[in-house]
Amino acid sequence: MNPARRTTAAAATAVVLATAGGLLTAVAVPASAATTCTSPVFKRQFFANTSFSGTPKKTDCDSTISQSWSGSPVSGVPSNNFGVRWSVTRDFGSGGPFTFTVSATDGVRVYLDPGAANARKIDLWKGTGDTARSKSVNLTIPSGKHTLRIDYVNWTGAAKVKFTYAPRTSATVDKVKPLAPTGASVTYDKTTGAAKATWAKNKEMDLAGYRVYRRLKGSSTWSKRTTTAGTSFTETLAKNGAIYYYEVRAYDKAGNESAGTAGQSVTTVDTMAPAAPTGVEENWAIGTVSKVHLYWNGNTEPDLAGYRVYRSTRTPVAVTPENLVSGSDLVLGAGWGENVPQTGDWYYYVVTAVDTHGLESAPSKPAAFETLDRTPPVETALNARATEDEAGVTISWDASEVSSGDDFVGYKVFRSLKPRSAGSAAWEVATGVKGTAALDPAPQPGTTYYYWVHAVDAAGNWGPVSQDVVVTPAGNTTAPAAVTGLSAVAKEDGVALSWDDASDEPGFDHYLVYRGTLVDGEWVYEPLEHPADFKPWQITATSHHDRTPADGEQVRYSVVAVDQYGNQLTPGVEAPVVDLTELDLRPTVPAAAGAPVAYFSAASDGWLAWALGADTNAAGSPVTGFNIYRWNRTTGAYELIGTEPEDNSSTGYWLDRTMPAATTVYYRLTVVYADGTESEASEDVAVSY
Known about the structure:
Radius of gyration: 47 Å
CATH class of the largest domain: Mainly Beta
CATH architecture of the largest domain: Sandwich
Mean pLDDT: 92
Strand order of the largest sheet: 4-3-6-11-8-9
CATH topology of the largest domain: Jelly Rolls
Number of strands: 45
Low-confidence stretches: 1-33
Distance between the termini: 63 Å
Number of domains: 6
Shape: flat
Strand content: over 45%
Largest sheet: 6 strands, antiparallel
């Protein structure tokens, strides 16, 4: 039940409908004691009869006609045989196609402009008890202001009534253009160059927004500047003295666009430099050049004074005095040339136009020319020398005071078994060194080496060579310090190991992870092997996951750092260990007796493989297939998860697509024969990813 909305002397209110996207929403506004309702809010009157005669028992404001009364709607009005009248006068703008929809028990009538011919648009005037009837009509509302009136009577039973009206916005139905916006004006700020257009909000219920257009004086073409739902638009205009006209058009949800407002003019101030010269970018040459000739299209500004030419090895070319190459005098024609420096760089040229007021244009698009670089870098490694420590042999030098700038790409350090003057083969120890030192981490101890250093530029030119540095490395036998912070956590899929970073140890190369097991009461340590080559796994991270089956074994782990010479601490003696008892996920049933297969293996990705050992059973019955079982810890049993027929091949494969992840998985395989018998099982385990 929705009771009538009430007003009081202390705080009388009415409800106003605001249009949002073509729909009506309720907002509260002040109402007078005389119950004045602001359009598009309905004035609602309650009558104690069904003829709407006499003085209403109550008058108030109603934002939405959607009521359900199970008794008297207001004081003084009976539960049956009463009437309610809603009315509103509003501006429909340009009008157009609308839909009126009503649903009610008993009688309801809808009028458009009561008193006019054919004003009644919906007539459902018949007692229905508690059963509601509905009706929708499509009609066209003329432009301008119109009055809606809805009369509802309840003869008996529940009183329910609902009424809505909304524009039809389909492009195939709505062909009515919105009214042109009113109150359009344009202001112009000479300081910022901003033009601002404003206009009043349209009355259209199906309004979608506005479009702002602009044209240059002397042109008949309007260009759209923006589409907006607001009532203003601001843009910054070039300060070139041009005159522009603005107009605003409204458009509705069907895409209909109104006529434009009267054109509003704006005259911009004139502070515009000449346009950037064009055609400069069309100058080019095949291969490298020693001379450059530039030509471009001449500017047409009446106040043009001349041109300036700028050059740089970078783009965009900065228009600065340092890059100006055409001199202090302006270039008067549309062409210019010079002998370009031969540095191996790409040179980029731009041209600007200058007017009689000293205003300079933006730079043109660049022209690019390549030169040939035969000039070596000037950087030289001075006072080259060598030091040896646990990290290896470090060649260092003093930097020269001069620099080749961006052309310098770094130093190269070479090592040879003979002096450089002997012209023997040399190995590149380091390249691209921008500093003054380079490390040769692992030269062979006891061997005499000769080192020298060259600077290199971007073209591959070598600078002056340093003096030879003669070194006979002694090497070292000092192992890196013990790794700290070692932790091991038992998981269903193995053991998760982590430790503190020791990579800053001198000469550090990698880590080795050792797994220790008890053999005859003694701890025996073996390095974890890489699965690709089965060699000790050289690890550079500070964590590792040992994917061993979780079978409850007591193990020890040790992580040792290894330097470039292979020096390392002895696990379990010099290097600390961490003890761990693995999780025990082994099946709790007796071990498998073995199937007649040569082998059976399970991989961590779920692939199972086997090779058949005999084609028949003891009774001579041939093999017809294989059964694959997987241990289920929840049920405590091996469960059949798949079968594979015998395919006349000695080997078989099967993929467990439902293999549980990150755990230890046990499998069994049996052989099935034509006589219906099944062999004993073979067993294998896999640690899944």
